[in-house]
Amino acid sequence: MKPNKLASATLVAFAILAPLAAALQGREIFGADSSQAVLKPNSSPMTGWNWLSESGPWINSAPLKAADLNGKVVLVEFWTYSCINWRRQLPYVRTWADRYRDQGLVVIGVHTPEFAFERDPANVRDAVREMNIPYPVAIDSDYRIWNAFGNAYRPALYFIDGKGRVRHQAFGEGGYASSEKVLQQLLTEAGATGVSGGLSSVQGRGLEAPADLSALKTPETYVGYERTEGFASRGVRDKPWLYAIDAPLKLNQWGLSGSWTMEAHRIMSTSAGARISYRFHARDLHLVMGSPGTPIHFRVLLDGGPPGHDHGTDIDDQGYGVLDKPALYQLIRQPGGVTDRLFEIEYLDPGAEAYAFTFG
After folding, report:
1. What is the DSSP string of 134-175?
2. For 117-127, how does the pLDDT look when each residue is reduced to its tens digit (9 = 90+)?
3. How far is it, in rounded angstroms, from Cα 141 to Cα 116?
4. DSSP state at residue 249
5. Which has the closest alpha carbon to 284: 326, 328, 330, 252?
6. Is the pTM of this model over 0.85?
7. Nearest to residue 65, comparing CAs of 45, 51, 80, 82?
8. Given this model, what pLDDT does residue 239 score?
9. CATH architecture of 10-208
10. 213-359 — its CATH code?
């Protein structure tokens, strides 16, 4: 990722990620706060509100028009609901939307999908409701708003002044103090009164808790053959195959056991008892999963046994869980010390789909 010279945050790509994957999807990008953001007269070639006409359906609002936004400070947030980096940013954006609403801030979420299931408006509406997103969301399944901004990252924030000019940008996680100060500066410029200079106190919980970067040694891993890394099993593409793991996994390697079909962007279990194994080093382990429409039961093991107190929010202490919707599932959260661990998930029913591992 090229540094954004107009943003005040120093953007740092996680060094062990594949550079191309980070550049294409903007995941696993972390920023550092700075004491003061320097606002530019116009930090993007995109001006005005013409991009509003590019949206699909809206959630939480009728379609917004230029007349609704003229004179307002607008924060545009690009996101997709299975992205862990966006989930960890969400509590900050949610807080700002509430705190500065009466001073004239309008937050607009632009949902631009990564995986096929995120193109379904019903899935997006469910995510908006379950994640308590109160602000308007434009569904951008055809990437028309994304392209109008020339965006390349998830999550991404664009700070727009009352004249429709992009004055600041922030890509990836972090930089929250700097971003909030930008909002305060723009609101003051727009004539808002009562804008406090203090920063919001935000405490993310569950999936929204900040990553433990000091313990994070495993990168995001896609499991479809087009972008995967560290795959230790042998197999074939695009048809069922009986997979096995022939040797102990090394750190950041993963493999399959049982009957699977590996496609470009996902893997699908074709029999009960199929497993995914991953040796990782991180506090949290998440897996983006889906199903063909019927619930699929699964069990997670950690170093060969039940996870106990290291279980994530989507399983119990014995490791049992149910895959009942396409989403990001938190399977491991270690409250104590972090070491190399062997993660295994066994699907007790056929038909499970897996897309990507993320860590925190």
Report:
1. -S-EEE-TT-HHHHHHT---SSEEEEE-TTSBEEEEEESEE-
2. 999 999 999 99
3. 10
4. P
5. 330
6. yes
7. 51
8. 97
9. 3-Layer(aba) Sandwich (3.40)
10. 2.60.120.260
- Strands 267-269 and 320-323, how do they pair? unpaired
Mean pLDDT (the chain) is 89
Say if residues 164 and 69 touch (Cβ distance below 8 Å).
Answer: yes
Tokens, residue 159:
């700070």
- Report the alpha-carbon distance of residue 96 to residue 193 in Å, rounded: 16
In terms of C-beta density within 10 A (0-12 exposed, 13-18 middle, 19 or more buried), how is residue 294 classed?
A: exposed
Q: What is the pLDDT of residues 176-222, one digit of tens each?
A: 999 999 999 999 999 999 898 899 999 999 999 999 999 999 999 99
Q: Please say if the pLDDT value at position 28 is more than 70.
A: no
In one-letter notation, the amino acid at residue 321 is G
Residues 31-48, mean pLDDT to the nearest whole number: 51
Give which of 233, 252, 47 is closest to 149, Cα–Cα: 47
User: Does the pLDDT value for residue 309 go beyond 90?
Assistant: yes
Report how far residue 66's alpha carbon sits from residue 50's, in angstroms, rounded to the nearest whole number.
Answer: 8
What pLDDT sits at residue 180? 97
Name the residue ranges covered by the structural domains of the chain. 10-208, 213-359
Q: At what angle do helices 84-99 and 176-189 cross, to 10 degrees?
A: 30
